[in-house]
Amino acid sequence: GAGVSQSPSNKVTEKGKDVELRCDPISGHTALYWYRQSLGQGLEFLIYFQGNSAPDKSGLPSDRFSAERTGGSVSTLTIQRTQQEDSAVYLCASSLERGETQYFGPGTRLLVL
Amino acid sequence: RKEVEQDPGPFNVPEGATVAFNCTYSNSASQSFFWYRQDCRKEPKLLMSVYSSGNEDGRFTAQLNRASQYISLLIRDSKLSDSATYLCVVNGAGTASKLTFGTGTRLQVTL
User: Fold this and answer.
1) What is the C-alpha separation between B86 and A14, in angstroms, rounded?
2) Mean local confidence (pLDDT), B26-52
3) Residue B11 distance to chain A (closest CA, Å)
4) Are the beta carbons of B99 and A99 separated by less than 8 Å?
5) Host H or E run for residue A65
6) Lowest mean pLDDT segment, chosen from B3-12, B15-24, B95-104
7) Does the structure show a pLDDT above 60 at B96?
8) Exposed end of chain A (fewer CB within 10 Å): N or C?
9) Mutate which: A50, A91, A101, A108, vs B, most B CBs within 10 A
10) pLDDT score, position B46
11) CB-based contacts of B63: which residues, under 8 Å, 6+ apart?
12) Which residues, listed in sequence order, are joined to residue B84 by a DSSP beta bridge?
């Protein structure tokens, strides 16, 4: 079946612009996660959605970052007033239930000039 | 102390060698443990879950030591295609479903 998809696959933007990244989780998965991975670094947790519960936003690095998940499916991660240090690969993952195996999308490579 | 700690490596081993990675975790209440594999410029993919009794999948063996709070991954008869970064992943039991990823151990298998 279809896996997790993300768009765009690559995004180049200018410092100060806003960007929106999209994630389509696997159908039926109730949990959705956003991570960030800088070059040569580990995964940095950003935000987690579980069903209709309030999201866990504890990993968002600043108030320029926000995310929403509409209808319990598609999620968008928005970065406002992008900075060069925001350049990274943004990975989305989904899982069937809490604590279950996470399946990752291919990521969005963001470059802020 | 980091929630999940791994030796970043790289581990450079010849084809056919046996190599083992360890990973330590800080939350004694953690319940779920996994090893993921990440190839260069690719997304992480599940390699195997780690069960209390240990588990084996072909050339790969994973073990859990709750008393010492570490998990291990053993790769026998290494192949060139095993070259990748191996991520240790632990469930943060108190934060329901939030998995914490280690920074990974890089393995390079050479001829």
Assistant:
1) 34
2) 91
3) 16
4) yes
5) strand A65-69
6) B95-104
7) no
8) N
9) A101
10) 93
11) B50, B54, B71, B72, B74
12) B107
- The pLDDT, as a whole number, for residue B94 is 52
What pLDDT was estimated at residue A40?
75
Question: In which residue are the tokens 């010492």 written?
Answer: B68
**A42 or A12, which is more confident?**
A12
Helix-then-strand count for chain A, H and E = 0, 10
Split at pLDDT 50, 70, 90, the class of A68 is: very high
Residue B33: beta bridge partners?
B90
Contact of A5 with chain B, judged by CB distance below 8 Å, is answered with no
Q: What pLDDT score was predicted for residue B99?
A: 80
Which residue's structure tokens are 């991520």?
Answer: B87
Tokens of B107: 């393995």
Q: Do A42 and B99 touch (CB under 8 A)?
A: no
Q: What is the pLDDT of residue A8?
A: 97
Residues of B in contact with A101 (CB under 8 A): 34, 46, 49
End-to-end C-alpha distance for chain A, whole angstroms? 37
Contacts of B51 in chain A (CB under 8 A): none
Residues B89-106 have a mean pLDDT of 77
Cα distances (Å, whole numbers) of residue B100 to A4, B17, B23, B29, B32: 20, 29, 12, 13, 10
Question: Half-sphere exposure of residue A30, counting CA atoms within 13 Å on the CB side?
Answer: 11
DSSP lists the bridge partners of residue B25 as B4
**How close is the nearest chain B Cα to the Cα of A16, in Å?**
26
Q: What residues pair up with A55 in beta bridges, in sequence order? A: none
